[in-house]
Amino acid sequence: MSKLDPLDLYDITAELDDEERMIREAVARFVDQRALPLIPECFDTGRFPTELIPEIAELGLLGSSLEGYGCAGLNSVSYGLICQELERGDSGLRSFVSVQSSLCMYPIHAFGSEAQREKWLPGMARGEIIGCFGLTEPHGGSDPANMKTHARRDGDDWVLNGAKMWITNGTLAHIAIVWARTDDGIQGFIVETDSSGFEAREIKAKMSLRASATSELFFDNVRVPEANRLPDAKGLKGPLSCLTQARYGITWGPIGSAIACLEEALSYTGERELFQRPLAANQAVQLKLADMARRITLAQLMSLRLGRLKDAGSMHPTQVSLAKWNNVRMALDIARECRDVLGGSGITLEYVPIRHMLNLESVITYEGTETIHQLVVGRELTGINAF
Length: 387
Hints:
This protein is an alpha+beta fold. The chain has 3 domains: 12-125, Orthogonal Bundle (Butyryl-Coa Dehydrogenase, subunit A, domain 1); 131-234, Butyryl-CoA Dehydrogenase, subunit A, domain 2 (Beta Barrel); 238-382, Up-down Bundle (Butyryl-CoA Dehydrogenase, subunit A, domain 3), CATH 1.20.140. 49% of the residues lie in helices and 17% in strands. The protein has 11 helices and 10 strands. The chain has helices at residues 18-35, 39-45, 53-58, 76-89, 91-111, 114-125, 237-271, 283-311, 317-341, 353-363, 370-382, and strands at residues 131-134, 150-154, 157-168, 175-182, 185-192, 198-202, 214-225, 229-234, 273-274, 277-278. The radius of gyration is 21 Å and the shape is globular. The model has no long low-confidence stretch (mean pLDDT 96).
């Protein structure tokens, strides 16, 4: 019998069509050749590698699942594979693409006017216009309904006041998709970041997502023209649908982190010798490696099925919550275990586990904490809302 791929025990590759495999391989090459040589230094110094944005755009990774306006129009599985390979490099890379695509381009595409789509989306697909998504607030966290940011109508404009917190791409952004309370419910606005009264401040001293730009946003009487209000988004359904899009990609991304960690653990334990034999010859090590492969395989199957459901138009938000909960927890546990397997080497940026482990502490929190997704599944099972 032929030997199995240790990183793909159930031959998920055979379930992909030619285009999906080609996309995965193209992004994998980009990550290996262009991103990974930069990422350790970026993580160490706390900067996002902006020099990679033109190449990310050239590959068609921005708004890749959207139709028209210069977007690639790929299927959901292809988008998932993009997220997997980017996060195999670093969660900061996947976060950048996820925010630009699912949280900024998607709401303009889904809820914007035709004029807004034509004005913003082509430049965003080319990486010339960067967006950020303003929903989370300093006091709000997992309760977006407790929103304090507000906008009031003033003639042909809206006047925006408030603050947002933990905003990926905030200091890089040319536009911000901002959700605010109005007299007519929660609405979305395209806020140009060079507007008077707008300020983005970098959040420093982070120990996670260091190769990512994370910011606070402040709005002090920021005037936003009516032409920049998203006309088809009212209430929390709009921003929550954006989060569902982003969470779908997150179900795939951490699989890449886990694969990177397992690959390194396999290499290290095969080469490292203690007591006259390689570490991989120890039963305790093999048990750990086997459990990692088991959990990665289950996550791969879950996300592939979820992608097929999404492409069929039958994906349920609870299914996304289950996969986000399972797959991020899987990856975080594997990163921690690999850090331990590598011993002292595991705490350095020469190896990947500590970086992925620290990043995944953020990934398990954002786009809905693990507890929130557990409660979503619990509500589906019982019919009782325990939030």
